[in-house]
């Protein structure tokens, strides 16, 4: 339950206290798992799954394919916190609440955040099942989770230069080549949803420089930057956008394609975590 009478620092203290009743793990890397990609959290070693309902002030996901757990565990001895079930602005949460989980990560000591999502392909060279390294984003949510009183430890006006860390991008690219997993690179365009875009809007997104379109990710990334957390992002292209696709879009299609690419996605993500976990140790 979200209590609007308390400030964020008070809420975070209560959330951390509830988490510490379940685990003392200090995660180094945080991973937010997009639609259909949540199974990765279950591959963690020595995992502890905490339901969001057991953590005060954390918003609850209502979207199919988003289970609603914080999963603590390890990959090759690297401590991880995986968000299995993100929340979205279109569900009715405030923009600050959407990014609340990243503030929890920051308080727990996370230094690197890997965001993932399901996205529609705008770039005509993309195909369903492609994995795209996010190199930048365009925020058409027209909302910013940093608006309002400054949260302790966060920058007031964080610079967004090199927002998606260039070194982490290089690491992901190299690992993709080593594993023979083809990777795209592109700009993520984010709007509120929950409707998919019109064909005219997709043309606009392409003209503005967007390669893929999603309804998430930006709030979490902005809060991560304000907390000096390094960021990497991977989009799973689950469908071609309206006007490019010849068929109507559905959430079932999104989750179905995500399931089909699950094996290569998990293989890539695991290798990336091992590499960057050791590089930044």
Report the top-level CATH class.
Alpha Beta
- Name the beta content range: 15-25%
Strand order of the main beta sheet, please? 5-8-7-6-9
Please describe the biggest sheet, giving its number of strands, its sense, and whether it closes into a barrel: 5 strands, mixed, barrel
Helix count equals: 8
Uncertain segments of ≥5 residues (pLDDT<50)? Answer: none
Distance between the termini: 36 Å
Could you walk me through the main structural features you see in this protein, from its secondary elements to its overall organization?
By secondary structure, the chain is α/β, with parallel strands linked by helices. The protein has a single domain, classed as Rossmann fold (3-Layer(aba) Sandwich). Helices cover 31% and strands 24% of the residues. It is built from eight helices and nine strands. The chain has helices at residues 8-20, 95-98, 100-108, 166-178, 199-208, 218-226, 251-260, 262-279, and strands spanning 29-33, 45-51, 69-75, 78-84, 112-121, 131-139, 183-190, 212-214, 230-240. Helix 4 crosses helix 8 (262-279). The chain is globular. It starts with 7 loop residues before the first helix and ends with a helix.
């Amino acid at each position: 339950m979200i209590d609007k009478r308390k400030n964020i620092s008070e809420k975070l203290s209560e959330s951390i206290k509830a988490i510490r009743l379940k685990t003392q793990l200090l995660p180094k890397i945080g991973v937010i798992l997009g639609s259909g990609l949540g199974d990765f959290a279950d591959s963690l070693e020595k995992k502890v799954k905490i339901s969001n309902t057991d953590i005060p002030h954390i918003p609850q996901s209502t979207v199919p394919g988003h289970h609603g757990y914080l999963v603590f565990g390890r990959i090759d001895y690297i401590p991880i916190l995986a968000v299995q079930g993100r929340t979205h602005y279109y569900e009715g949460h405030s923009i600050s609440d959407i990014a609340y989980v990243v503030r929890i990560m920051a308080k727990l000591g996370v230094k690197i955040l890997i965001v993932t999502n399901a996205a529609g392909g705008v770039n005509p060279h993309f195909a369903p099942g492609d994995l795209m390294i996010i190199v930048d984003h365009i925020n058409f949510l027209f909302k910013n989770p940093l608006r309002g009183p400054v949260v302790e430890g966060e920058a007031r006006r964080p610079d967004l230069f090199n927002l998606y860390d260039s070194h982490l991008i290089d690491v992901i690219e190299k690992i993709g080549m080593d594993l023979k997993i083809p990777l795209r690179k592109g700009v993520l365009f984010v709007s509120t949803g929950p409707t998919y875009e019109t064909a005219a809007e997709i043309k606009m997104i392409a003209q503005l420089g967007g390669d893929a379109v999603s309804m998430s990710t930006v709030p979490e990334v902005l809060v991560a930057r304000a907390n000096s957390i390094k960021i990497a992002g991977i989009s799973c292209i689950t469908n071609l956008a309206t006007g490019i696709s010849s068929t109507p879009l559905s959430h079932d299609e999104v989750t179905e394609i995500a399931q089909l690419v699950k094996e290569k996605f998990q293989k890539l993500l695991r290798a990336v975590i091992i590499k960057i976990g050791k590089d930044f140790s």
